[in-house]
Amino acid sequence: MSIGIVSPQVMHFAEPLPLQSGAKLADYALTYETYGALNADKSNAVLVCHALNASHHVAGVYQDEPDNVGWWDNMVGPGKALDTDKFFVIGVNNLGSCFGSTGPMHTNPATGKPYGADFPVVTVEDWVNAQALLADQLGIRQFAAVMGGSLGGMQALAWSMMFPDRLRHCLVIASTPRLSAQNIAFNDVARQAILADPDFHGGDFYAHGVVPKNGLRVARMVGHITYLSDDDMAEKFGRDLRSGSYQFGFGIDFEIESYLRYQGDKFSTYFDANTYLLITKALDYFDPAEKFGGDLAQAFACTKAQFLLVSFTTDWRFSPERSREMVQALVKNRSRVSYAEIDAPHGHDAFLLDDSRYMKVVGEYYQRIWQEMPKPSATGEQA
């Protein structure tokens, strides 16, 4: 059952936000959505953090866009794994995005023009600091859980380390404590495609009335390859030819080529090039163990949350080995941690799909959170 029609909300912040780079972001806004009802003691709130090309629109649909379904609608809603009949769920759009929160497309108050290339580089930790300020405004001092997949999982990890008293559970899906050299390489190839597009204009393409579509297309094609497994691509496309025979040119011969170009074309119509650069850099920079000499256990030493980690066997971008590494670091700290490794053929994108085993693991974990929560007594006081 879907949560139905939802509406985004906007929270403005006048106080400048200090960033890890040393810069400050003044007069910014965060776009967010909420689902379900916040209970009297505000103990049932769950923060859902989004991945690279997603947003605050986690579940439900918009009144005027019935086909715009939330990116995790299969996970969040009445009776679903994250049950909005029990939990108050918040989805926040990250700074630097192109889906509502202050980003490169917005006006720089210092110049009166779009930020463009002047928008400061932001990090996972910067996003988490901004999310904490939003939680303050909503009167939520502690989340029942912070949850995310992929880049969203990095944010959940950062929450557990930066604000250990502000979450009771941390759910990290198909994620990693740091990118491998291969992952950084893929991100850089994608960025170079954008930077080399003549329509990019050094990031100030808004003033020229153009979009670096070719760069965005290639960036999306490169990224999309990393989200799929070899088995999944083989099953869906194999070596199938689009027209049944070779064309002996450099156009589209294979169905996989057609699919990737379709994905790239679609992406270039709605995603901002500067946002793509910013978010992939945030991915590259995330490495909480770096200041501990690479010792992940030390990085987790301050955490107090209970953890659920989920990985997928065919996810070669954020492989199960990375999740096991986190589990081992948490166990070393005697943290309470559950781990599920799901045998699924879909690669990294599996965290967005409807695998029944995956949904059961997450649903049962949230049921445990719900059962462990203090319940109001008949007098209205906590039992």
Automatic annotation (TrEMBL):
Active site (UniProt): S150 (nucleophile), D315, H348
Broad class of the protein's primary localization: cytoplasm
EC number: 2.3.1.46
Pathway per the UniProt entry: Amino-acid biosynthesis; L-methionine biosynthesis via de novo pathway; O-succinyl-L-homoserine from L-homoserine: step 1/1
InterPro entries noted in UniProt: AB_hydrolase_1, AB_hydrolase_fold, HAT_MetX-like
Top-rank taxon: Bacteria
Key words of the record: Acyltransferase, Amino-acid biosynthesis, Cytoplasm, Methionine biosynthesis, Transferase
Subcellular location: Cytoplasm
Site (Important for acyl-CoA specificity): R317
Enzyme class at the top of the EC tree: transferase
Reaction equations catalysed: L-homoserine + succinyl-CoA = O-succinyl-L-homoserine + CoA
One Gene Ontology molecular-function label: homoserine O-acetyltransferase activity
Short name of one Pfam family: Abhydrolase_1
PANTHER family assigned to the protein according to its UniProt record, in alphabetical order: HOMOSERINE O-ACETYLTRANSFERASE
Assembly: Homodimer.
Function per UniProt: Transfers a succinyl group from succinyl-CoA to L-homoserine, forming succinyl-L-homoserine.
Family annotation (NCBIfam families): homoserO_Ac_trn, PRK00175.1
Protein family according to the UniProt entry: Belongs to the AB hydrolase superfamily. MetX family.
Protein name: Homoserine O-succinyltransferase
Native source species: Herbaspirillum lusitanum
Classification of source organism: Bacteria, Pseudomonadati, Pseudomonadota, Betaproteobacteria, Burkholderiales
